[in-house]
């Protein structure tokens, strides 16, 4: 452990988290805090802001928190202004905020589509514009980690604008890796798929949400065994571990890359282990499953 801590060299660094109070963001905040990183973060969940800040301070970390909606340009700018007064510079930026609701494109209102773009791409552009000068102040480069999604890499019916916005974040981040490379600032992405979180649960509308809640846990376990090569979805802590790696000196020569933390779902590209086909792995079911479904 001491060997990895020395090689990672996160102790004493300073990080900004956009969306760091609950769910995946909280897991990232606590993981960075345990690694010795001081943190400034914003969120819209006041109760979670308080509990996450308290946990970080118990670790002995310096913490600045603020209620701010990252999708509101004025609130994001205010957060960064206060952060610049709290820290004289930063070493790490993690843009976690994102999300949507599953709905066919032609049924989704124009306002909702605009919100999808701002929540999953627009604010990332603004956040990086604010953060880069703070990263440059340190004089030792830094690391930016943006959250994208598996949906940015496939045709995601029901998530069209969300998928497009995340794809924009992906290519924007790669372009910024090129631009910021001479400053020693690395830009990478994490692409989750199915991860147990309140945000992912909220993305599923009724009546599917109620049907999902009615399905026994063992059914979900079997579904994940069909879909995910590693048989189970990553936890929030697995995503936090990926952030630790990309933020640390262990990844000091890695930039412009997408790290898929999804149990292998992106690698499978739709290959499923159908339950009644004696281990066949194909995008479509074979005779055994077809007989059970329709026979």
From TrEMBL:
Coiled coil: none annotated. InterPro entries: NAD(P)-bd_dom_sf, SDR, SDR_fam. PANTHER family: 3-OXOACYL-(ACYL-CARRIER-PROTEIN) REDUCTASE. It comes from the Bacteria. It comes from Paraburkholderia guartelaensis. This is SDR family oxidoreductase. Belongs to the short-chain dehydrogenases/reductases (SDR) family.
């Amino acid at each position: 452990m001491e060997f990895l801590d020395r090689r990672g060299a996160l102790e004493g660094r300073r990080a900004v988290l956009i969306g760091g109070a609950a769910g995946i963001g909280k897991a990232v905040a606590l993981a960075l805090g345990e690694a010795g990183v001081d943190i400034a973060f914003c969120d819209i969940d006041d109760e979670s802001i308080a509990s996450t800040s308290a946990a970080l301070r118990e670790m002995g970390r310096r913490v600045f928190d603020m209620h701010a909606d990252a999708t509101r340009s004025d609130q994001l700018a205010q957060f960064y202004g206060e952060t610049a007064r709290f820290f004289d510079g930063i070493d790490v930026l993690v843009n976690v905020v994102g999300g949507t609701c599953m709905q066919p494109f032609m049924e989704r209102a124009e306002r909702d589509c605009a919100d999808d773009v701002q929540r999953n791409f627009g604010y990332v552009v603004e956040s990086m514009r604010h953060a880069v000068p703070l990263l440059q102040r340190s004089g030792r480069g830094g690391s930016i980690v943006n959250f994208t999604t598996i949906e940015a890499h496939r045709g995601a019916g029901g998530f069209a604008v969300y998928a497009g916005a995340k794809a924009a974040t992906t290519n924007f981040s790669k372009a910024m890796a090129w631009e910021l490379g001479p400053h020693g600032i690395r830009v990478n992405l994490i692409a989750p798929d199915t991860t147990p979180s309140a945000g992912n649960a909220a993305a599923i509308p009724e009546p599917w949400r109620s049907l999902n809640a009615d399905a026994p846990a063992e059914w979900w376990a079997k579904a994940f065994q069909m879909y995910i090569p590693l048989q189970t979805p990553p936890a929030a802590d697995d995503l936090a571990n990926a952030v630790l790696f990309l933020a640390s000196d262990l990844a000091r020569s890695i930039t412009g890359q997408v790290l898929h933390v999804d149990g292998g779902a992106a690698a499978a590209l739709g290959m499923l282990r159908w339950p009644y086909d004696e281990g066949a792995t194909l995008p479509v079911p074979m005779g055994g499953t077809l007989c059970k479904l329709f026979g």
